Amino acid sequence: MKKVLLIGGAGFIGLNICQHLCEKGGYKITILDNFFRGKKDEVLSALVDKYQIEVLTGDCTDAETYRQLELDYDQVYMLASVVGVEYTQKIPEELIRINTALIFNTLEWLRGANVGKVVFTSTSECYAGTVEQFNYTVPTPEEVPLCIDDIRHPRFTYAVTKMLGESGFIQYSRAYHFECTIVRYHNVYGPRMGFKHVIPQVVQRFLAKEEPFKLFGHDQTRSFNYIDDAVNGTVAAMETKNTDGEIFHIGDDVAEITIGELVQYMGSLMGFEGSYENVEAHSGSVSRRCPDVSKARRMLSYAPKTDWKVGVKKTVAWYVDYLKAGKNVFE
Ligand SMILES: NC(=O)c1ccc[n+]([C@@H]2O[C@H](COP(=O)([O-])OP(=O)(O)OC[C@H]3O[C@@H](n4cnc5c(N)ncnc54)[C@H](O)[C@@H]3O)[C@@H](O)[C@H]2O)c1
Q: Which fold has domain 2-190+226-251?
């Protein structure tokens, strides 16, 4: 049995990784989360009941939290973070404090622990500025220099903390002898991803019968990465040998679509027959983003398999059912 620790493992991606590993078998899993965003819901309890995973509650901004952990793990997935554009706008100073502290405390814990390998989860936001300001190539490969547009803009606080994490995990892994691989996600989506992403927000607006329906940033492009594919890529980054110190772009290079296409497809799924109005994007929002995932294809045998229309359909259906059942909107 491999001993696995998922820090921030009750969240969207973490719990899907947990589920995947449980179904695969051969893992003894511990989740550490403060349930700021992760939920103690029926999905988590079902995994606890069926697979006896251990769930620890603790705030990773407090170094004492790490005392609950054992010192030896074969694999650590570092997923804890405050995520979401809304937080960067509302509480940028708290986002800096929390994300910096939880990265630092994890690194300091790793210094004294006996861990085989860590995967640190980063983001395309770290290089979005390079694409925007310097016209860097899209689809974008891993060697892109990291850059943000404007250090004063709160939107970029999240990217700044992820850059710290990438550098921090790589340097600590070299100094304290554990393996480390970085994955940079690109718009991961799927059921139970919270309500701060574009898809659930658009579902809510269709249900609220917005008319005309505003298409913010209609001509901006994104490549959406269905959760099952993101999980496969992340687990492959952890399990594939000779990936120490490597960075992988995990995303979908097949379907780069405009926000307009996405929203209008969702409208068709939800029976919307009204009109659309194109509106300028929110400030700080990048105009184009698509990863070059050829390195992950080559080294990890990663291949995004879910057609975006299939993934969006499943996701919309989950949110419509959830909201129509009168359940709470969660972070
Ligand atoms: N979802 C995406 O599209 C995406 C894109 C790029 C990067 N990422 C990164 O992937 C990781 C997982 O993302 P996600 O979408 O699952 O987000 P999520 O918010 O669902 O998961 C993050 C988890 O971290 C936990 N957490 C936050 N602060 C904590 C603290 N102080 N102590 C302990 N736990 C804490 C939250 O409760 C949550 O369960 C994050 O690091 C995120 O930055 C995600």
A: Rossmann fold (3.40.50)
